[in-house]
Specification:
With 98 residues, the chain is α+β, with helices and mostly antiparallel strands. The protein has one domain: YhbY-like (Translation Initiation Factor IF3), CATH 3.30.110.60. It is built from three helices and four strands, in the order αβαβαββ.
Length: 98
């Protein structure tokens, strides 16, 4: 599923009040971090991930790599914060505009 520009803008606006639920630190994209992101996406659909300064990946590398590993869409990259979205297959919480 690919998000349109309108849908990305909507998701960025929805994520504005959210706090990052996962931090990407010195471990980088370890299996435990990937599992935490997958769990958070399953629970919330729309999450923020903070890329710490100590991370071996810079924010752009993380934005290119992480969504593919967790089967999510990148809705935005604001500073060191990634906004990820993955629609829940049965009970979607976030209504996307068409």
């Amino acid at each position: 599923m690919s998000l349109s520009g309108k849908q990305k803008r909507f998701l960025r606006a929805e994520a504005h009040g959210l706090e990052p639920v996962v931090s990407l630190g010195k471990e980088g994209l370890s299996e435990s971090v990937l599992e935490a992101v997958r769990d958070a996406l399953s629970t919330h659909e729309l999450i923020k991930v903070r890329v710490q300064e100590s991370s071996p990946l810079d924010r752009k590398e993380a934005a290119e790599t992480l969504p593919g590993l967790v089967k999510a869409e990148l809705a935005g990259l604001i500073g060191r914060i990634l906004i990820l979205y993955r629609r829940h297959p049965n009970k979607p919480k976030v209504p996307l505009p068409s």
